Amino acid sequence: MKKNKLVTAAMLSTITAGTIYAINKTISLVANTQAALSNPHGLRYEWRFGNIFYTKQGDGKPILLVHDLTCGSSDLEWKSIVSSYAKKHTVYTIDLLGCGRSDKPAFTYTNYMYVQLISDFIKNIIGHRTDVVATGSSAAIVLMACYNDDTLFDKIMLINPVHFEAGSSDKVNTKLSKLLLEMPLIGTLIFNMSNTRQTYRTLFKERYFYNPYAVRTSYVKNYYDASHFGAMTSKYLFASIAAGYTGINTSRAIKDINNSIYILAGEYEENMKEIVADYHELNPSIEYSTINKTKHLPQLENPNDVLNAMSIFFN
User: Which H or E run contains 8?
Assistant: First the structure.
């Protein structure tokens, strides 16, 4: 009897594992087949940890646009900004490692790794001191990169930056969650269930945009496609973010950086007034302004006002 139960349990486990694998594989194949992430300006930077997708347009003083650090983020965050700003500047966009069309290696992603990427990209691709705009969590990456080597940076604009204390955590439960999310079958399934089209549709309507009726289907598709593009290894960035490995306390950097820093805040971005006040308390020279009737991604929701703010600050 016990032997029969063990055989039955083994068969059920095999069937379950096979079903989960089939679901994960199908999602990956469909997502990659339907992905519309092509860009005629796309280029490749062969970095030490993987190939980096980037674009270069225009002529003039260089500026680097760095998207937010989420699994769905890519340079498409700047699609409404690039062509207009490239009329007077050389505009670079980049898909950070683990995001969009860049490689997605199966390892732990850390803030310092991204600091190295931004620094190396400026040195090896741009080749000049550059202005930078960064969104959300990527603000911490740019601030730390500038803190390490301010000769690479000129002016810095942060769009809805995370709080400077949004650093990594040493809690045991976050490390255990990372191990779970990196498991071959269960981790991939959790990633897929956490990065559905409906997930991104809800994010845009509730967090990214102030006006839910302004959310285009193409925005949702772009983020969904970017999160699943490539091999089934996007979960490693997802796990690293969840466990806090991509965060760092940037208070020292904010205090000591002498570069001009400007914060562009969405009027209805949660806690942004307090975040701006805390940044300004650390460094009173930081300037800021608000983009009315926007939330987390004003560069998509109200690109004209963002372009105006960029033109005033960087010129």
Answer: helix 2-34
In which band, very low, low, confident or very high, does the pLDDT at 33 lie, cut at 50, 70 and 90? very low
pLDDT over 80 at 32, yes or no: no
Q: What is the pLDDT, as a whole number, of residue 47?
A: 98
- Nearest Cα residue to 96 out of 130, 28, 155, 47: 47
The larger pLDDT score, comparing residue 15 to residue 87, is at 87
The count of residues in the chain is: 315
Q: Where does 106-207 have alpha helices with state H?
A: 111-121, 138-148, 172-181, 186-194, 197-203
CA–centroid distance for 150 within its chain: 22
Spans of all domains in the chain: 35-314
* Residue 78: closest CA among 90, 56, 58, 93: 93
CA proximity to 118, closest of 66, 78, 157: 66
DSSP run (H or E) holding 58: strand 50-58
* CA 295 to centroid of chain Cα atoms: 16
Residue type, 222: N
Which fold does the domain 35-314 belong to in CATH? Rossmann fold (3.40.50)
For residue 5, the tally of other CB atoms under 10 A from its CB is: 9
List, for residues 223-276, the tens digit of each pLDDT value. 999 999 986 788 999 999 999 999 999 999 999 999 999 999 999 999 999 999
Tally Cβ neighbours within 10 Å of residue 123.
13
Please, which residues bridge with residue 66 across strands?
94, 134
